[in-house]
Write a structure and sequence with these properties.
alpha+beta; 6-stranded mixed beta sheet; 5-stranded antiparallel beta sheet; 8 helices; 25 strands; globular
């Protein structure tokens, strides 16, 4: 049973999504490649509520709408946002709707436009074109202090000459709140971030993780409807980052407000998000749940940026068959032109090891690394070095057969723009 039926807006070709996840509900969902010849609206009805319902127009303009429902309560709408710096386009006619109460992550490499998008939502930068709509009102020209939005930065910007309590109270004092109100808010915020009793401490005496929690507490006492987080975990070590990921999820669930999180760390995005917006070169490449983004990348860039992948050139001689490095591989994809050149994506965990001669191709293990929960191996087969994961160790020099189930082979049209191409590994 396949979870989605994907329909190309250009030529009505159909392709089945490979991984069922145990669901039986199908939904119509646009296939991203190709130029739409007419406006089409797709309303997903899948088990996740659908997360990539798109409105496609002839300019390849896609409005990504919250959780796939065009009628959902949108707290933020970005309409045709364009930004340029020194003649270089940073955001290119970006359209995005964010639903009330979502945890949304803007994910992409450095320079993709994610932080600029966040700054525009927060009012710290103005678009050259387009509008920012907040709860149905145009706030494009509204100053940051007039918006019901607060921001937590990577650099915590705590006042070193103030106590923790004074840092948290800073915004409330500017609003001339009463002393009792402020004290109640400080106690509530410190309890929420698990730092009760720290109000008299000074920030410089705290760990990086504790300072980050104080910055979050200072933001939430102002009761924002949206909290923007600009790579707030980037300065923390691995263990602290993992702890703070869980803390942020807990805080978001407790408050019930919208979180918009910026990161280039794929694990952070997959761990915390309700929805992920993958960006590159000022364009949105894909929007979806973490499961959708990982299992159903819409182009080579997303497949390469999210997790690890084997991305290989292939040819589709006919439906449900792809030739990879001269070997035929059964797949589940249909609707491609005869002998069309395609990109083939196979995740390392989907590579299965068999005895030599019993797989789709034979190869030799060239290296092995122990990763804790699995072994990561490189296998030379048919002139290509494959990346494969297994819980069983196959040491260098071992001759094996490689097998991949048809439903675990992802077939995609070749990129139509540079922004959809595989990123360089050193970026």
């Amino acid at each position: 049973m396949y979870r989605h039926v994907c329909i190309c807006a250009q030529n009505s070709s159909v392709k089945l999504c490979r991984r069922s996840h145990g669901f039986v509900d199908d939904c119509e969902k646009p296939f991203a490649e190709g130029v739409a010849q007419s406006t089409a609206v797709f309303r997903p009805t899948g088990p996740f509520g659908g997360s990539t319902g798109n409105f496609c127009t002839a300019r390849i303009r896609t409005v990504y709408t919250a959780k796939g429902d065009a009628d959902m309560d949108h707290i933020i709408e970005l309409k045709d946002i364009t930004v340029s710096f020194d003649g270089e386009t940073v955001l290119d006619h970006l359209d995005l709707n964010i639903g009330n109460g979502e945890f949304v992550t803007l994910l992409g490499p450095s320079g993709c436009g994610k932080t600029t998008t966040l700054r525009i939502i927060g009012g710290f930068a103005a678009p050259d074109e387009g509008k920012v709509i907040f709860e149905g009102k145009d706030i494009t020209n509204l100053s940051p202090d007039k918006r019901h939005i607060n921001t937590v930065f990577q650099k915590y910007s705590l006042f070193s000459h103030m106590s923790v309590g004074e840092n948290i109270a800073f915004g409330l004092k500017l609003k001339k709140k009463s002393k009792s109100y402020i004290q109640d808010k400080i106690r509530y915020a410190l309890k929420l971030v698990d730092l009760e009793g720290f109000e008299d401490r000074h920030p410089m005496s705290l760990s990086g993780g504790q300072q980050q929690r104080i910055a979050i507490a200072r933001a939430i006492v102002n009761e924002p409807e949206v909290l923007l987080l600009d790579e707030p975990l980037g300065a923390l070590d691995l263990k602290l980052r993992q702890d703070m990921q869980q803390e942020l999820i807990k805080i978001k669930n407790e408050l019930g407000i919208t979180f918009i999180f910026v990161t280039h760390d794929q694990e952070e995005a997959l761990t915390m998000s309700d929805r992920i917006i993958v960006m590159n070169q000022g364009l949105i490449q894909q929007v979806g749940t973490p499961v959708d983004i990982y299992n159903e990348p819409q182009n080579a860039f997303v497949a390469d940026f999210i997790g690890e992948s084997n991305i290989i050139d292939g040819v589709m001689p006919k439906d449900c068959l792809v030739e990879i490095l001269g070997c035929p591989f059964p797949c589940v994809d249909t609707g491609f032109a005869a002998n069309e050149n395609v990109d083939v994506v196979i995740r390392p965990e989907d590579m299965e090891f068999l005895e030599k001669g019993k797989g789709m191709m034979d190869g030799v293990v060239t290296s092995i690394l122990f990763k804790g929960v699995h072994y990561e191996m490189k296998v030379q087969a048919n002139g290509y070095e494959w990346l494969a994961h297994s819980t069983i160790a196959y040491h260098p020099g071992t001759e094996i057969g490689l097998y991949v189930k048809p439903e675990n082979i992802q077939i995609m049209h070749k990129p139509v723009s540079a922004a959809q191409e595989v990123i360089k590994k050193n970026e």
